[in-house]
Write a structure and sequence with these properties.
Length: about 110
C-alpha cells in the first residue's frame, strides 16, 4: 500500500470514539491495532527516506566543502509535509483498510 497517497489530515483532527471502536467493540484494542499500524507506516517511510537520502551521501572525511544539494532538500521537505504515521493509521482504520483478527476467539 502506498502510504503517501492517503487522504490523512496533516493537522490534528478529533474523531468520534464510536467510529474508532466500532470494528472491535473495544477502544483499547482498536487503539492498539492503530498504534501497531502506525509503527509499520513509520518504519516504511523511514526506510524509503533513508534510501533516497543515501543517493546523495558523500563518503569523504574532509570537511573542506559542505554544499547544499537542492534535490536532497526537496526530498526532505516532501517527507516533512506528509501526514504523521498515526494520522495515516487512523485514516486507514476508518476506511476499513487494516486487516486484524482476534486470536483469542475460540471456534
Amino acid at each position: 500500500m502506498d502510504v503517501k497517497n492517503l487522504d490523512a489530515p496533516v493537522n490534528t483532527v478529533t474523531h468520534n470514539r464510536s467510529e474508532i471502536d466500532a470494528p472491535t467493540g473495544n477502544i483499547y484494542e482498536a487503539i492498539s491495532i492503530i498504534a501497531k499500524r502506525a509503527t509499520q507506516i513509520n518504519t516504511e517511510i523511514k526506510r524509503e527516506l533513508l534510501e533516497k537520502l543515501d543517493e546523495f551521501a558523500t563518503y569523504s572525511d574532509s570537511l573542506e566543502e559542505i554544499f547544499e544539494n537542492k534535490e536532497q532538500i526537496e526530498v526532505s521537505k516532501f517527507y516533512e509535509r506528509l501526514p504523521k504515521p498515526h494520522a495515516m493509521a487512523v485514516q486507514e482504520w476508518l476506511e476499513d483498510k487494516i486487516y486484524f483478527r482476534d486470536t483469542t476467539a475460540t471456534e
